[in-house]
Fold these 2 entries.
Entry 1:
Amino acid sequence: MLQTDRLVTDFAADVRRDLALAPKQLQSKYLYDALGSSLFEAICRLPWYRITRAERRLLEQRAPDVIARLTRVSADAVPLFVELGCGSGEKLVILAEALQTAGGHGRVHLIDISSQALEQSERTLGRLRHFSVVGHRETYEVGLRHAAEHREDGNPMLVLLLGSNIGNFDTPAADGFLGEIRRALAPEDFLLLGADLVKPERDLLIAYDDPLGVTAAFNRNLLVRINRELGGSFDIDAFAHRAVWNPAAQRIEMHLESLADQAVTIASAGITVRFARGERIWTESSYKYDESQIEQMGIRAGFAVAEQWIDDDARFALTLFSAI
Ligand SMILES: C[S@@+](CC[C@H](N)C(=O)[O-])C[C@H]1O[C@@H](n2cnc3c(N)ncnc32)[C@H](O)[C@@H]1O
C-alpha cells in the first residue's frame, strides 16, 4: 500500500472512532493538510501569536551555546539534527548556520505529517552547504524511529521539538513521548524543547482566536479537509471556532461548535454523525507550563537540564536537555 493511502485509511478510522467519543473529538495532527500548513504559517505572522517570534529570538541568541554543547566532545563531530514536526524548518536553519559558522558539517532529518511542510522545510534546509537533508512524511513516533537508525557513534544527535508542539499532548502522553525520544538517544545526545508558558488569559485567548479569523479558518479547515478527502457533508458555515482557556488543566482548547441541530455523513468513514445545537468537537489542546514543570517533564523522561532560556516578553521557554 502506498504511504499516502495508509495515511488516508488512518484518517478515516480515526475520524470514525473520535466522532463517536463523548465529547466528540478530532486529532490535531489532521489540521495540517496543505491549506492547514499555509494557514499555520500565517498564524505565526499574526501579532497576537507570539510563540514563533519568541522562539526565533531565543534561538538566534543561544544557537552558539547549543552548538558548543553538541561539539564539546569532538570539534570534528558531524551532528545529526532530527526535528519533529518541523513546519517550515526556518528555526532549525538558525542552528545549522551557527554550526556552519563554527566550521562544522551536519546531517538533518526532518519529520512532519504534512507534505506541504516537509517540502518547504526541505527547500529551506537544502540551501545550506555541507548539510545532507532527509525528509520523512511520518508521524513523530514513526519518523523518530526511522531517523534514529541513522545515528552514528561519536556523532551526537540533537532532537528538536519546537513551537510548543509538546503542548498538544496530554500530560501522560507527553511523558510517554519524551520517554520515547530519550530511548532513541544515547548519553551525550540532546533534546531541545520549545514550550509556551502560562500567561494572562486575555493574551492566551487572542493568540488562539485572533481578530482576523485566521485561527478560526485553520480550525474550520479540518471540516473542509474531511469533506474533500473522506466524502464528508459538513456545512462549514454551520460550525464556529471556539477557543477556551481551561485554567485547571493549564491548556487552551480549540473546539468547533455546531450552530444548529444537524446530521453529517462521512462516506469513507461509513458514518452519519448527529450534532445538537451548541455541541462541540474538540480539535486541539495547547498546554501551557511554568519553567519548573518543563524541567520536571524532561527529568521524568530520563534527561538532565543542561540550560533553560526564557523570553520574558512573550513568556516562552527553550530548554536544552542532555540524555544521561
Ligand atoms: C504547531 S506546528 C509547529 C511547526 C514548527 N515546529 C514551528 O515551531 O513553527 C506543528 C507541526 O507539526 C506537524 N505535526 C503535528 N502533529 C504531528 C504528528 N503527530 N506527527 C508528525 N507531525 C505532526 C504539523 O504538520 C506542523 O507542521
Note: The chain has two domains: 3-30+201-287, 51-199+288-323.
Entry 2:
Amino acid sequence: MKYSWKIDNFDSEVFGFKVAKVETIDSEDSPEIIDKIVGDLIMDLNKERVGYATYRVKFNDFPIIQALQRSGFVLVDGLISLGINISEVSIAESVGEIREATRSDLDKLKQMTSGLYLKSRVSNDPLISKERADKFYTKWIENSLLGEAADSVLVWEESDKILGYLTLQKKGQIPLVGVAPQARGKGIAKKLIKASLRKFGEWKVEDITIETQMGNIAALRAYQDCGFKVVNSFLTLRWAKDD
Ligand SMILES: CC(C)(COP(=O)(O)OP(=O)(O)OC[C@H]1O[C@@H](n2cnc3c(N)ncnc32)[C@H](O)[C@@H]1OP(=O)(O)O)[C@@H](O)C(=O)NCCC(=O)NCCS
C-alpha cells in the first residue's frame, strides 16, 4: 500500500461527518505515480464515505504537496514544532498563581476557551463553521481535564478568575496553551510553560515538544524565550468531498 489513513474519531464527532487522517503517502516516485497514489487514496476515501480528510506533510515535501493540490487538497495550516530537553534549562521556582486544574474548573475553562483559538487548521477552514471550530476546542479542553487528552492541566488564577491554562501529556507534549485576551503580554504563558517543565521533571520526562501556527508570533516568542528551539515545520492540507 502506497498510502495509509484512519478515521479521526474526535474530528468526526465534533464536525458531524466522517473525517479521516491521512497518515502516510509514499513520496519516492515520479510526479505521475504520486498523482496516481493520491487519486487511489481519494477513490478509497470516497468508497468509505469519508467527507473530509487532512494530511500533515513536512513543509518542504514539495512533490507531495503539489500532487495533493492537483487533486483538490487545499492548504489550511502551517505549523512550527519546537523542542527542548529539560536537562539543558534551569527549572524556575513555583508561582503562587499557578495550580493544577480540577474538574470543578471545567465550566470556567470551557468559557475561557470559547473564541480563543482563531488561527488553526480548524478555524482557518471556511468549510468548518465558527460554532464547530469553537466546539472543537471546548471539547478538547474538556477531554484534557477529564484525563482523555492530557495528563494534567495547569491554570493561572487571580482573584478566583482563570486567566490562562496549559495542557500537558506525559509523552512530552504541550498540546494547548491559552491566555485570556485581557491578560496577554504579561508573561503568563511563559510562566505556565516554565511551570510545566517542573511538572515534566517530576514525571522524569526530558524531551518536550510544542507546536504552534507559523504566524503565531506571540506563542513563538514565548516558547523560544523559555528555551524551546525550532525543530521542524509542517503544512496541513485537507480534502473535502464536495469542495
Ligand atoms: C500565545 C499566547 C498563549 C501568549 O500568551 P501571553 O501570556 O500573552 O504570552 P507572554 O506574555 O508570556 O509572551 C508573549 C510574547 O510575545 C510578545 N507578543 C505578544 N503579542 C505579540 C504580537 N501580536 N506580536 C509580536 N509579539 C507579541 C510578547 O511581548 C512576549 O514577548 P517578549 O517577552 O519577548 O516581549 C496568547 O496570545 C493566546 O492565548 N493566544 C490565543 C491562543 C493561542 O494562540 N495559543 C497558542 C497556540 S496553541
Note: The mean pLDDT is 95.
